UniProtKB/TrEMBL annotation:
This is DUF3096 domain-containing protein. It comes from Marinobacter guineae. Keywords: Membrane, Transmembrane, Transmembrane helix. Pfam families: DUF3096 (PF11295). The chain crosses the membrane at residues 25-44.
Length: 47
């Protein structure tokens, strides 16, 4: 049995939990999320 996980939903889940725990970090979490998705997109990884 193989477990296949996508990266984008895991990042989204982590960002959502971080926002719930530390609401003041919203700007940093959103910026980090966008940077990670942008870098992965440039490297050719699909989501």
């Amino acid at each position: 049995m193989t477990l296949h996980l996508e990266l984008a939903p895991l990042i989204s889940l982590g960002a959502g939990i971080g926002i719930l725990v530390f609401p003041k970090l919203l700007n940093y979490i959103v910026a980090g999320y966008l940077i990670v998705l942008g870098v992965l997109g440039l490297l050719g990884h699909s989501f």
